[in-house]
Amino acid sequence: MPWDAAIRVWEAIAEAGSAFDLQPAGMLALDIARIEAGLLLIEVDFYSSRKAMIESQKYSPYELGLGRLVDLNKGPFVGRQALTAEFRRGPRRQIVGLEVDWTEVERLYEAVGLPPTAPATASRVAIPVYKGGKHVGRATSTTWSTMLKKMVALATIDAPHHAIGSKVELEVTVEAVRHTASATVVKTPFFNPARKTAPALG
Asked: pTM of the entire structure?
């Protein structure tokens, strides 16, 4: 499609959405909003079963936090036996939300004489997560929440450390030196405004 035609299409979309107060937004802003909403991104936060190349890349519905969509009481289906066993023992890991202690991050920057700066864009680079020096998972989507004024992340954490309220440490790199900052496992979505489920005004 020619560039001028594409611009006309986007202008028409913007005009049609104005009645609903819809605003255009760039991909970088949408990535931050996605994380704030706790939405997982395929091949970043998890892999589909068709794309997983090694065992650790395979995720079950329980590990994705989608156990509510699994009906173990319906008729036979592929994977039922494995899912029943996982339901009984609990998932070995789970994708959860992390809230990073920004005060600790600030101290790491101040220790080397730098002003702490919140990242302007979301990161999709996997970052190690530790508990008492032991590797217990990885943060896959990390961002400074512009709505909450907090650093948050979506992370895969091993049991039992994925329980809400658990304390872990997230790797933070300052001037090419690796450190850790405290983080707390929290419920997602991070940002969950009442207007999201408010009835439409007629």
From this structure: 0.84
